[in-house]
User: Fold these one by one.
Assistant:
Number 1:
Amino acid sequence: MDINEVESRNLNQDLKILLVDDDERQLRALETLISKLDLEIIKATSGQEALKLMLHNQFIMVILDMVMPDMSGMEVARLMRGSKKTQTTPIIFATAFSNDEVQMMSAYQLGAIDYIIKPVNEDILLSKIKVFRDFHIYQQQKQEESLRLLSELQEKNKTLEDTRMAVMDMLKEANEARNQALIAKSELEQSLEEQKAIERKLKIAIKKAENANIYKNNFLANMSHEIRTPMNAIVGFADLMKDLNLSVEERNMYAEIINTNSMQLLRLIADIIDVAKIEAGEMKITFDRCKLNNLLRELEIQFNQLRLERGKFHVNLVLDILPEASFCCITTDGARLNQVLTNLLNNALKFTENGEIRFGYEIKNNVLLFFVQDEGIGIKKDKLKLIFERFQQALPEESVKYGGTGLGLAICKGIVNLLGGQMFVESEPGKGSKFSFTLPLKIVEEASGEDENIVYDIEMKQIEGKTLLIADDNPSVQEYFIEALKPYNLKLYMANSGKEVVDLYNKHPEVDLVLMDIRMPLMDGYSAIEEILAINPDAVIIAQTGNVLQDDEKRCLEAGCKGFLAKPILKNDLIKVIKQYC
């Protein structure tokens, strides 16, 4: 194919996405949603049809229904991974079963990069598709740029050849030989310089394209490793726990391992969600009073314990704060500030084997300057600009030796910016690193202990004796609500499904407030809200959900909820909502 023809191709010409589902209504719904992204959408209603389409098309992604009659989504994925043409094509499984861990593990083992739960959350699905579309477009653009530069180089070579022929002709002209030779020499030197410049640009373009591909592959490999490693432990030890001959000690040990790895997965998911929120401009920042020294002392206790658990006996953790500010309260988002410092301390502990980790703050020019300084492996100077970018780590081998996805520092920088500050780094290989960030200094008066007791007594009297109906299909969450609300002498009814919460509301019209989980079996939260409001249009319903984007909150309020709580739900937030609406 001629280079100019390749260069002129439309970048979107190859952006095809394959939707596979035996339910044509589901296909049409997905097609309508994804059509917003200007992609060529191809549909298949069976696994056989999908495989045939893959023989003649190159897809940037396949959204694959997990359950189909003639050939399951698992079988289609297995066949795709066995073909060179499709073995690297990203697969997102679509399933109606959100809690089938074994099935999800099997999907990841077949190479799935993600899955979505039916009914599909539009924003989440579009966000996932956009990531892979943008990767694909970026690679195509770099390839097009390389081809364009190559075309220019060929054109210049042709110009050089024409110039050489012209010089030969000029030499035949005896009377103008000397003047023409000088002109030809000048033109030749200029063309050679232009050729070198084009070659340099071409090399840079090729290097950028190669780096982009390496970053993408490293991220996908790291993400796969970070997911599969804890999943392997969870699935493996869950299987071992089926043995009826296990001792109590063994069973408790297995349960602790499963819990530890589950928390690791939860942190990974939280990081991915935070990156998506920051990019979408939807990360929620709540400014409130924050006891600064208390927050830092709690971190000192937490990380000293973590240091011992990790066997870092030769690392010394030092807290550097202003003692005179012990009773100082500032206005900021304490939870997000804690998240940033936790991330930085985790990194410092991870990369430091001996020496000191010092963290704290100082006040300069009415600005708070926080810092975390370690004596770990350090970072090369040419890598310092990269570490705050998504999916980047200072050295590729770090992801193998130390683990991680390269999202943490990008999240820290995003949060600090939202809090009104800036982030900085100083580092030297072999000597350690110092991460610091600024926040505006906004001091507020701290409530006395006596005032806090008065507030607690008022809360007790205000909500004591109220009746709550709590809908959540997770027994652990139900138990948390029971324990958190025990001091307030409330009457609680628990429902495990949308249908059960409607039945209980019918039987107990005295209910003052309904705390409604949105994702439940038999009947989802939205349907249950609709039926309860049909019984009593004035019913007070508060949504509680793990879906934390702004559109989710908006949808709950439009459905008739008075308020919205995002999981995980802290006790103070729970009491605040009950006090507000009861």
Number 2:
Amino acid sequence: MKPNRLIPILLIVATAFTANAAQAAQYISSKKAVAIAQKNVKGQVTDVDFDSTPRAHYEVDILSKGHKYEIEIDARTGKILSKRVDRDD
């Protein structure tokens, strides 16, 4: 491959990586999401998942006093979107 063709390809690849890094920087970390959830429900974190649809959010599962709580946290703002209790556990 000629060097003059390689440069535009490298620029495209670099731009794609930069765009992905910028988007990831817009989200709070999973560690921050866990801290937010634990401020709301004291207990043991059993699972943390990131979901980008329909809106980027973290799902944090916490076991507290025999109940399993699922707390959804907006990945951009850190706002708690919902809190559900599974009373079957």
